[in-house]
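[audit] Reproducing an earlier prediction to check determinism. Same input, same settings, fresh worker. If the tokens differ from the archived copy the diff job will pick it up downstream; this log only records the rerun itself.
[audit] input (277 residues):
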Amino acid sequence: MVGQHSRLKNILTGAVTAVALLWTLFPLYYLFLTSVKSGKTIMEYPPRFLVWPDFGTYQHIFIKEHFYWFFVNSFIISSGATLLALAIGAMGAFAFSHRSFRGKEPLFLASMVGRMFPPITTLIPIYLGVKFLNLVDTHLALIMIYASFQVPLILLILRDFFNQVPREITECAYIDGCSSWMVFYRIVLPLAKNGIVAAGILCFVEAWNEFIFALVLTSFKAKTAPVVLATFVENEGSLQWGALAALGVWTVMPTLLFMLFLKKFLIRGLTMGALKG
């Protein structure tokens, strides 16, 4: 009886896992399949799910049309925003975790306000400010905007990680003559590296996929991959499905690879952040 129950549980688990994988991976497979089909094959009905790949579309949009530059823009902006947000958020989290000052908790709650409303509600004032500073269509504008929206998330994640650093270690460091900066840089950061990597991954992915601000604040020089993907139309006005699929593959691929290579840090960081002691 116990064996049958265990076998039934394994079968049910396998079936649910298979359905979840199919639901998740099939759209990605079909997106890639569309990108390597010829123009005639794309419009065939019923569609073919196995074809000989043709990478001419990739060659056209990335080599002849130089669309690779928009992906470089996305990488520069996402990386810059992530590093800036981590630098500001980590120092703020250390202050909220290891320093005592009046109004600490109310100030921490106030810093979370930025995560409590849709960023689009600030679009008009941010656009006016960027225009006043003459930073429209620049990498710097998007880096600062994206970082400002990510700092509250980093504060929320890293404060819990920094709280788990034993106070005995930091107190001994202060007794030995270490400054607050040395304690932060040499002790707290190395012990919380999993949380830092996890927060960095979440910030990078969110910055990479951001669309509204990149659409409004850029025209060409700093245009990002999601904007190009959403606005790519053929000269005649009809959609180029193969080119759109190729752009979609390249838009998804960096974040997918990023998550795959650093998933152990992400899983460990998010799970350890939920534990106390």
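[audit] rerun output stored. Observation attached for the diff report: The radius of gyration is 24 Å.
[audit] end
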